[in-house]
Amino acid sequence: MAEPFQLRVVVRGYELDTQGHLNQAVYLQYCEHARWESLRAAGITQDRLISTGIGPAVLENTMRFRQELRGGDEVDVTCKWIWGEGKIFHVEQEIRRSDGVLAAELSSVAGLIDLTRRKLIENPAEHFHKLADRPEFMGF
């Protein structure tokens, strides 16, 4: 897939902080929601993934705030999966207002964990690819 997965979200009033800005923790929730929606678009529901005895594990998040968001703003949250070697992968995400202004960027390092052994599995891309009905939504 040439373009990253994208999801539109409207900033809700109850997500704002006392200054009327989107609460900083909610930016991360928007990105988490977009990751799961990307997986779901690929055919991988939470139940389907967990039924394999494997679950996601976020190891690191780096959020960069660029522009404030306010109640009623419509934003597009992207999700780009970056596959490599070994036990980890990267996810790059952007939150942009509908007028194109970049509000935030998130870079994540993640893996898949064996829920019984509590250890990261080798080659998470292979595991995801086997489960995906539409792997192009995950950059395969």
From TrEMBL:
Name the domain of life this protein comes from: Bacteria
User: What InterPro entries does its record include?
Assistant: 4-hydroxybenzoyl-CoA_TE, HotDog_dom_sf
- SUPFAM superfamilies given in the database record: Thioesterase/thiol ester dehydrase-isomerase
What GO molecular functions are on record for this protein? fatty acyl-CoA hydrolase activity
**Gene3D superfamilies in the cross-refs:** Hotdog Thioesterase (3.10.129.10)
Record's protein name: Thioesterase
Organism of provenance: Streptomyces poonensis
* Source organism phylogeny: Bacteria, Bacillati, Actinomycetota, Actinomycetes, Kitasatosporales
